[in-house]
Amino acid sequence: MPADLVITGCTALVPGAGGDGGIDFVEDAAVVVRDGVIQAVTSAQDVADLPSAERIDARGQLAMPGFINCHTHSPMVALRGIAEDMAAEEWFNDWIWPMESNLTDPVVELGASLACAEMIRGGVTSFADHYFAMDRVAAAVVASGLRANLGSAFFSSQGAEGRARSVEFALRLRGAAGGRITTSLAPHAPYTVDDADLAATAELAHEHGLPVHIHAAENRAQTDSSLERYGVSPMQVLARAGLLDVNLLIAHGTGIRDEDLAVLQNGSGRIAVATAPRGNLKFGWGTTPIRALRSIGIPVGLATDGAASNNTLDVWESMTLTALVQKSFEADPTWMTARQALDHATRQSARAIGLEGVVGALAAGHRADLILVDLTGPHTRPPHDIAATRVHSARSSDVLTTIVDGRVLMRDRRLLTLDVPAIADELAGQLPELVKRRVGRSVQDYRAEG
Amino acid sequence: MPADLVITGCTALVPGAGGDGGIDFVEDAAVVVRDGVIQAVTSAQDVADLPSAERIDARGQLAMPGFINCHTHSPMVALRGIAEDMAAEEWFNDWIWPMESNLTDPVVELGASLACAEMIRGGVTSFADHYFAMDRVAAAVVASGLRANLGSAFFSSQGAEGRARSVEFALRLRGAAGGRITTSLAPHAPYTVDDADLAATAELAHEHGLPVHIHAAENRAQTDSSLERYGVSPMQVLARAGLLDVNLLIAHGTGIRDEDLAVLQNGSGRIAVATAPRGNLKFGWGTTPIRALRSIGIPVGLATDGAASNNTLDVWESMTLTALVQKSFEADPTWMTARQALDHATRQSARAIGLEGVVGALAAGHRADLILVDLTGPHTRPPHDIAATRVHSARSSDVLTTIVDGRVLMRDRRLLTLDVPAIADELAGQLPELVKRRVGRSVQDYRAEG
User: Fold this and answer.
1) Contact at CB, B338 and A85, closer than 8 angstroms
2) How many CB atoms lie within 10 A of CB A231?
3) What is the pLDDT of residues A45-89, one digit of tens each?
4) Quick one: pLDDT at residue A242?
5) Which of A311, A329, A409 to mutate to test the interface with B (most CBs of B within 10 A)?
6) Which of A176, A253, B329, B336 has the fewest CB atoms found within 10 Å of its own CB?
7) Taking the model in full, what pTM does it have?
8) Cβ <8 Å between B378 and A420
9) Is B228 exposed, middle or buried (0-12, 13-18, 19+ CB in 10 A)?
10) How far is residue A128's CA from residue B252's CA, in Å, rounded to a whole number?
11) Integer angstrom CA distances of residue A276 from A153, A248, B247, B341, B367
């Protein structure tokens, strides 16, 4: 039986032989895809005579796992650039949360669709989304061809309804889009969801075998405030609620202290953290303590957060910034090497969204989520060190081709599943209503002190 | 007489009416170019019937001044990625300076040519270069069509010869390439050029009306060491040598202290600083104190440093990182707004390389150094705030067309003056000799303690 897709002549980024998170590069490689799965990563010579429905000649290109955006709010691209150069309190209370009270299903779907287009062009093949009206986000996932983990966000201020909707959504959408959609429960944060709701969420996660995706310790001020008010840190709040004993994805974690490491270690769940370095810099928040988390074996995936704070959904940029910012914050240029950054972008990000062994590696048996990247631009020559070139010189615009489940979503930078001008025009018509700020209307209230 | 070039239908980034560094955006604008000079920035309607040798329909594009790379070592792209994830001492002493002893004229010209290709593709129209074998860099400038300020670098360890060569080069090349080349004297740094040589340089600058381009206070350790050893900071060393009384471009200045501000204020020269935020992060060095320098009216231009430390020559990225890193270092999200960052990228960078009023603004009488940038990508929609979109969402790969002195060097991302595959292939043949590290051969010695 012929293969569905054969890619030849590329350099391939593959897992290192040691299995310890190292990576290797194989020259003149070939990738064979059948039924949406990578059947083999072999030599171009090996597949010269292999019949295939589709072949891509990828000489001068790098084949690598697609990027995984481990924490975003995709519909928020509708608010990209609307509230700039301000502190988080003002950003939330005066701009974003009032405007989010104007959200409609069409705006959510258009925003998510534009986000999917941006992510496909940036080489993202999976994303973890945490927002409202998630059926509309799921529709964008279906149409775009991307893979996603989706969670319907809730606050305790919504009463029992928000949590119930989160569970209903997670159970109904689990496994949708031919398995490309997985789901999570999505309480907003310890400062907007009370202890009883957090504990109930942990029980529901156990009962239904669902992971949980939550914001926590987004910045150090939240941690300090939690300690002052309640005598416990956000990590201790999560522990007390039982959330460290389920499969938990913590967004940001910038306020995780050294004292919290033992708390995290005591959890029996599969715990991971998503880091979004751009927004951290922009709010002046410090950054995720990746080195400390590594010391206790907690994977850290790369993320962009929403475009209203982060301005881009460019996970390649998150990788580059993680490498730079980690060196700067630890004042250690030998830390967060290019190869470590690539490990965060691939294996650790796959673990963070619960898909280790499924995506995040060019290896037989993994889903065929991969990208082809141009190696020939002047900005990436000469190729003294291909890992450093990828992390520090190349960028998302070098991605030529994006493939999910063996399906080509972008070929030579041409999007094949989404019509950007049509989406952008339709969204533009919705913006005047979206950006109105009405007295007394807001989805929530943010207190700087958490 | 017909115009040489008319660009129509673009959004134009122009100086604000206040003349205080503000910027404005004009919709449906037109730019008229004659004899390499911007003759008018007007409305598209105004030029509908104007005869012109060449017209560019730039609807859906932003016209803005080209970027200015205020401090680089262009030939060092030949060493891009060769020495990664290490401290500056090891980087200089064990890798870069030994390899630079292998430099040949062909390597310098090929490296500079590849650098010019990268910069044109990134929307850079001018660069300030500080290196060796500068006649070969000048040849690359001539061939590429870029504008440049060139300085022949010297150490006191070279004896009188290095300084003499720097003066001879600066006088001979001043005004070359039809005026596109300006020149500077280029002592390497206070820790590699002794006080007598620095003072002699200041005298030569006065005598010949030449500016000086020098590394100083690259990091805080250099400042602390200078204070400990000599009782004076690098800024005080420059002052004592008379270099603050000439037109001086200081590269990095990351180690400038609050106490140095009065020293800088006492200088009678036109002093500017070039900031290269990427390399600062990568070496864990802190960053240029832009807010303090602004308080005393010292302009700060954007730079990339050489690609061996910075990995890219992408000044757009330097603008983005400057905005992000300044907010983070000052822990103030309201500082370094998108419009401030654009002012650093344009007016302040032009001042830094001594070309204020010549380049850095789309305004009548300025040289026609400009770029056209795509506004239609999904990652830059919707356009709630065009300044924020440019600084935080767009990137150098959105540059479609690059123009210097009215000559189109790249059109719709196609380079018109340089053949990248040929340059890269020829450089590849030179690399085995370049990267040899031979015992006892090095151009200089770096002491961490300055």
Assistant:
1) yes
2) 8
3) 999 999 999 999 999 999 999 999 999 999 999 999 999 999 999
4) 98
5) A311
6) A176
7) 0.97
8) yes
9) exposed
10) 39
11) 19, 17, 41, 22, 41
pLDDT in tens, B21-51: 688 999 999 999 999 999 999 998 999 999 9
Topology match between the domains B3-65+361-415 and B67-352: no
- Give the pair of three-digit tokens for residue B420: 């990248």
Residues 344-403 of A with CB under 8 A from B: 376-379, 381-385, 388-389, 392-393, 395, 397
DSSP B322: H
Residue type, A311: N
Place of tokens 């082809």: A372
Domain ranges in chain A are 3-65+361-415, 67-352
Architecture of domain B67-352: Alpha-Beta Barrel (3.20)
Q: Put residue A37 in one of left, alpha, beta given phi > 0 → left and psi -120 to 50 → alpha.
A: beta
Identify all chain A residues contacting B121, using CB atoms and an 8 Å cutoff.
Answer: 377-379
Hey, what's the torsion of the CAs at B178, B179, B184, B185, to 10 degrees? 50
Task: For residue A114, give both structure tokens.
Answer: 């534009």
- Using alpha carbons only, what angle is made at residue B81 by residues B78 and B86, rounded to the nearest 5 degrees? 130
Cβ neighbours around B171 below 10 Å, total: 13
Bond from prior residue into A378 cis (ω within 30 degrees of 0): no
- Domain boundaries B3-65+361-415, corresponding CATH code: 2.30.40.10
The answer to whether the CB of B139 falls within 8 A of the CB of B159 is no
Q: What are phi and psi of B62, to 5 degrees?
A: -100, 130
Note the pLDDT of residue B450. Answer: 44
Residue pointed to by tokens 């960052």: B341
